[in-house]
Amino acid sequence: AINGQRLWDSLMEMAKIGATPKGGVCRLALTDLDKQGRDLFVQWAKDAGCSIGIDRMGNVFARRSGRDDSLAPVVTGSHADSQPTGGRFDGIYGVLGGLEVIRTLNDHGVETDRPIEVVIWTNEEGSRFAPAMVASGVFAGVFSLDYGLSRADVDGKTMGEELQRIGYAGDLPMGKPIHAAFELHIEQGPILENEGITIGVVTAAQGQRWYEVVLTGQESHAGPTPMPSRRDALLGAARCIDLVNRIGLAHAPLACATVGMVQVHPNSRNVIPGRVFFTVDIRHPDDAVLAQMDREVRDGIAKIASELKLETTKLEQIFYYAPVPFDAACVDSVREGAKRFGYSHRDIVSGAGHDACYLAKVAPTAMVFVPCIGGISHNEIEDATPEWIEAGANVLLHAMLGRASR
Amino acid sequence: AINGQRLWDSLMEMAKIGATPKGGVCRLALTDLDKQGRDLFVQWAKDAGCSIGIDRMGNVFARRSGRDDSLAPVVTGSHADSQPTGGRFDGIYGVLGGLEVIRTLNDHGVETDRPIEVVIWTNEEGSRFAPAMVASGVFAGVFSLDYGLSRADVDGKTMGEELQRIGYAGDLPMGKPIHAAFELHIEQGPILENEGITIGVVTAAQGQRWYEVVLTGQESHAGPTPMPSRRDALLGAARCIDLVNRIGLAHAPLACATVGMVQVHPNSRNVIPGRVFFTVDIRHPDDAVLAQMDREVRDGIAKIASELKLETTKLEQIFYYAPVPFDAACVDSVREGAKRFGYSHRDIVSGAGHDACYLAKVAPTAMVFVPCIGGISHNEIEDATPEWIEAGANVLLHAMLGRASR
Ligand SMILES: NC(=O)NCCC(=O)O
Ligand SMILES: NC(=O)NCCC(=O)O
Predict the structure, then answer these.
(1) What is the distance in angstroms between the Cα of B201 and the nearest Cα belonging to chain A?
(2) For the segment A237-294, what is each residue's pLDDT rounded down to a tens digit?
(3) Kind of pairing, strands B311-321 and B207-216?
(4) Residue B255 is nearest to which of A227, A257, A270, comparing CB atoms?
(5) How many helices (H) and strands (E) does chain B have?
(6) pTM
(7) CB < 8 Å to B264, chain A
(8) For residues A298 and A284, what is the distance between their CA atoms, to the nearest angstrom?
(9) Distance B132 CA to ligand 2 centre (A)
(10) Which of A274, B69, B75, B149 has the fewest CB atoms within 10 Å, i.e. is most exposed?
């Protein structure tokens, strides 16, 4: 069994980097704070006897040798970046949970046949740089390296530049054989807590599509411009936000549909907005329903634009993956782990995207979920109990050990 | 008659300061560019023999002495600041039109009994610092000096600080006797151009109310958070934007209702927005209807917030003035000027607010409008013909001369 107190202390120590007033974390990808978080992990991993490798997307691999170092490793890990107003567990729990597995193996002098690696995947959140999971996506061959390095933030800074700047532009090539991969994460939704269950055995992740939309009308004075002659891009965006919500509700209970980001131009109180950029995020565990939602979004936006005499200057799907089934054997390893420790558990589908979704394309992969309080994540008040945190890492330890022999 | 070419050339020279790619101007209040524009005007006014005074709100008074300098002056002027994507005429036409009046009097060696003053009123647009017309408002006693100097932009910089920084924090006290005031401006709406009329004799300005609204919900993950349990502040804001538009249409043709500015928090693609700030601007020439619209805005926002389980963290009216009737004698002077030059003219109500609206509280005041192309203003493509520009300044000259004797 792992050392729950040590894991908790490490999480709280890491949470100081980018700590926010309301108890959360702001550690956006490839900022100075992200670098500090990476540096701390690298130090801890070295202290635990690991060697460190960094690939060209800045993914950090902390490796504990196996008896036969030529064998493909068993991999775990998650991300160290956060949302602008994120929590202390989203991502970093999967990284430090992996480190705790290594520390525990060290405590007990356990050798494994295969090497074990704990990975920080760069820019999982997709908040500073869209889309999400871009670096695990490049690792898995879903995106090209050029695509990954050229993702830009709102100021036009690219991931490639920022990796150089913070000293995490590594030289390892992208991708390598992985024997099995596991990712430990908080659920980020309400199901486990509502049902009083400690471990989510993640069998699949729902599919998602992200869009960027720009509606263009005509900037004009808010006073002397008669209502009927206006071409108000913000009115159009507002109706699209309502549309997206209605599409999500129409496909409830499983669908999600969200507009999270809006930029209004020129954003002046007495100017009818001439241009509005906004994002759309739709999700469903059934790819056919997701495709139906896609059509509804496209048709609905076109209709709104035409009614308001706006141009749809951009309506681009910038991110898509079909629902991801995890590997049956890896899922079993997770379930066995929960049983062995006597934790209550249930199968669950992930509502969020995770680096494991892309790893699943190149290696047998599964995930371990633990509850989070109120089902709330992507919020500074995100929280979890020390018992859940300990339980998840125990299941991870067991699942990894089960796959670490020859 | 004034020199139309000289006036046009001065306008085009000034338009280089803050020129934008699409042929407009970005000269936000109290920026370095605003300072450059002011400096150029001050130089031109000095070259025309004027003395310069600056009051504590940074209003710049260029004075041409009269035969009896103890008499209250006849005043004209407007503003030199612009919208973020503004045009080459909005405001500055009234300033340089006034300067052209003085240059014309100089050309012909005309002495007036009363001094004549051309004023730049600080921060008329209300874009960088809300509300609009704040410095003419302090001059007219509508706002206190403390209130004016403490208006802050989105970065928290105050007008007081920025006036100091650009060297336009003057020491003249606020307010003084004015014999009569005229403001020359483009219409910023479509009426004159549609009817093929050159001069608008402005009899009144419609009333307006501005609001700041903050809706608060709960930030949460866009993936695993079920639709029914969401408290999406952006969905609430979107419905409010639609509401404001419907209120404007319901009171058409005279009403206007606009949301021009939105700030989403945390503005991340995969986070359900927890907090949204937006502004509302409603206008009507009848104060009773404006009050009715105010009730509809307040009730509508409260209803939307309650339906979506959002908190209305802020709903504050930050700016209000009742419809402004201009002075009958000054209006007559404008009408006489148009007649004298044989310009087509009609009475018109201003849809925009102008510094003249506040001056009207402390002095007999009226305005001269000329058309603008397509009725478009607060847009880089704002435009006007040299003929209109010349005609408006001729009417201003005549109206001012008519009031400049003892
Ligand atoms: N786990 C997580 O928050 N991932 C971000 C990508 C997504 O929005 O699903
Ligand atoms: N003239 C003008 O654009 N004034 C700005 C204040 C308003 O929005 O009415």
Answers:
(1) 15
(2) 999 999 999 999 999 899 999 999 999 999 999 999 999 999 999 999 999 999 999 9
(3) antiparallel
(4) A227
(5) 12, 16
(6) 0.95
(7) 260-262
(8) 17
(9) 7
(10) B69
